[in-house]
Input
Amino acid sequence: MAGRYDQFCAIATALDTVGDRWTLLVVRELLAGPRRHGALARDLPGIATNMLADRLRRLEDDGLVEQVEQAGQDGRARTYRLTAAGRELEPVIAALARFGVTRLPADSDGLAFRPGWLALAVRLLMRPDALDEDVVLRCESARGVAQLRLGPSGAVDDPDAAPDVVLRGDPGVLLAALRDPRRAVELAASGDLEVTGTPAARRRLAAALALPTPEETP
Output
């Protein structure tokens, strides 16, 4: 078939299925839950609507995505969700994210950004075994807000809770602070990063993420 590798190889076969441009990013969005076509198009900046329709159709044909009706404020709407087979791609997405997080540029200017993408990085960087109780982290930038409850069982979105720790800065600064404690100290000292929260909450978060403890920040 055109566009296929025609190799009796597991990696080549996987790429035959999800190796097209945009396909894994569609999966990334659906990992958060069922989505309407319009919502997917909005949160995949740069994708043409016909390209999105094609990728969804291919994922459906391969048994990785299915269409379902879901109730909403404006009545029932058709949405897309991952099948059980599609959710098997979650560790693949996680591995790619861990590979890519160290290769992101320091400056996000000129690049599309969604707070959910930063939330994904937080989920990958945290160590749940380091937390004995929950801590609510809020990451604020001029380009959006992500708020997560981090605990022994992992991280979940919790936009309505009172945050225990708040980080403020540009997306690139926030990510640098979350993945490298030395950079976090430098960014806080330079004023590019603002960290607020009780010392106890900040210590708990520092144990689970690459954040400076209160004693290390100005």
